[in-house]
Design brief:
It contains 21 helices and 8 strands. With 474 residues, the protein is of the alpha/beta class.
Length: 474
């Protein structure tokens, strides 16, 4: 996300104090060091990150030696992934469901993978760009992901725009992950050159993949642009010709820069006619980008940042109970930065900016048609600040219900979604977090076998002890 479509690069002096990530960074399945994408001076490795890296190296050497592998070979195995989560637990506390046996015995690791491979995983937020898309500024998403979350993005295709195009999308979503069905999305822009995919291009990709698969593997959005000339006519054309499974909108207007067209979900004059049309057409699901703003959002987006909050969701949901409102990213505020402030605030008060506000809406407005989606919000915290990830999901499930939390990864911006799937499968809510003054009572409730069985039957990514089920909304 480049709000001014420009970059601030390191000075010569700063560059002299850095080393390339492919040389200096430890190639772990889980990132162990904060590095720079070239737009800022990297922060020193934290004490916790040093401890995770050191412990992981010890485990990799120990278990790898027993299996006749060197460290590099071991890191590429399922046992290596398990060892990485073991190291995380030993530093951050018991947050991931993993055993030593998985790290030591390939048979155990393979047995676990085999037991999970048939899970029905529906990823409701995926992306690729059109063949003639040329804006390399979009690569900042992948750079940040490779440096903080998913170092494997440095391999194979590399960080070029080819990574974000159709052929690699099919590979990473449907071949390199356990995803069974995906929803293809796009975004608007005041600048046509920054349009990722048109509504017709999304529909064409849906047709292509489903014909090749011989089954319904890809669904698609149509993007809405309230306030732009002719936007309702495009909605009508979408209903008649594109026939999307759902709609996608950005209340901030343009995710790539200042926009002339911000809008609110509860704007009765501008947006309510749209709701009327989609309800009548039988396509009543609207996915809305919220949150994901830079650290200096009040300064860099002084007139626009308020549109990224969720204060317009409750009234719209109350007025339109026939419409399903899927709030993308769970409205988590931080974007390409690590969510350290959010974790500190949660530990002190139980509040997560603006996700907690979203979680409160069903009770505040007595509505059941508001859902939280996890794209980027989960990626931004799962392997760097796992306590925040556990807190975020715990709050959403506790206050909105397990069947109102929706799985999405924002792939392929961050490489194959498999690393996110694996983290979610293992995530647990720590016991000490359950005992705080803001108890996540849902954890105990979800251990109820009846609810667990219902969750499994509804298509979930995974249900581990003290975790939750993610159900899917079509």
């Amino acid at each position: 996300m480049e709000h001014n479509r420009s970059s601030v690069w390191l000075s010569e002096e700063e560059l002299g104090r850095t080393e390339p990530v492919e040389v200096a960074a430890f190639r772990s399945p889980i990132p162990t060091q904060i590095v720079s994408n070239g737009e800022y001076t990297p922060a020193p490795q934290t004490e916790q990150q040093r401890r995770v890296e050191a412990r992981f190296k010890e485990l990799a050497d120990t278990y790898g030696h027993r299996l006749g592998m060197d460290r590099r070979q071991f890191l590429k195995t399922s046992c290596g992934m398990a060892a990485a989560f073991l190291a995380m637990n030993q530093v951050f506390g018991p947050i991931f469901d993993v055993t030593e046996a998985e790290a030591a015995e390939p048979e155990r690791a393979h047995a676990r993978s085999d037991a999970l491979k048939d899970q029905f995983i529906f990823d409701v937020q995926t992306h690729f760009v059109r063949d003639n898309f040329e804006k390399e500024g979009l690569l900042s998403l992948g750079k940040f992901a490779s440096e903080h979350w998913n170092p494997t993005m440095l391999k194979d295709v590399g960080l070029t725009l080819q990574r974000y195009k159709f052929q690699n999308y099919v590979k990473e979503i449907f071949l390199d992950s356990d995803t069974k069905v995906a929803l293809l999305s796009s975004s608007p822009s005041d600048d046509p050159a920054w349009e990722l995919l048109s509504n017709d291009q999304m529909a064409a990709a849906r047709t292509s993949i489903n014909q090749a698969a011989g089954s319904r593997r890809l669904l698609c959005h149509s993007v809405i642009t309230p306030g732009k000339p002719g936007w309702l006519e495009e909605v009508e054309r979408g209903i008649a010709e594109v026939k999307p499974e759902s709609w996608k909108g950005y209340t901030i207007g343009d995710p790539f820069g200042p926009s002339k067209f911000p809008w609110r979900l509860d704007d009765e004059k501008l947006v309510y006619p749209f709701y009327e049309k989609i309800v009548k057409a039988g396509i009543p699901t609207v996915c809305i980008h919220k949150g994901l703003l830079p650290a200096d959002y009040e300064k860099s987006l002084p007139e626009l940042w308020k549109y990224a909050r969720v204060d317009d969701v409750g009234k719209a949901a109350k007025d339109w109970p026939q419409v399903n409102f899927i709030i993308y990213h769970s409205a988590l505020r931080p974007f390409v930065e690590l969510p350290e402030r959010e974790l500190a605030e949660f530990e002190q008060s139980g509040y997560i900016q603006w996700t907690t506000d979203l979680a409160r809406i069903p009770a505040q407005y007595s509505v059941t048609n508001v859902y939280a989606e996890l794209g980027t919000a989960f990626a931004n915290s799962a392997v760097t600040h796992p306590r925040l990830s556990a807190a975020l999901i715990g709050q959403l499930v506790d206050r909105m219900g397990a069947d109102h939390v929706v799985w999405g990864t924002d792939s392929v911006w961050y490489g194959s979604p498999q690393w996110q799937i694996e983290a979610l499968r293992r995530l647990e809510i720590p016991d000490d977090m359950l005992k705080q003054q803001w108890p996540l009572k849902v954890c105990a409730e979800l251990l109820n076998e009846k609810l667990r069985a219902q969750a499994q039957a509804s298509a979930c990514v995974g249900v581990a002890p003290k975790i939750f089920a993610v159900n899917w909304l079509w």
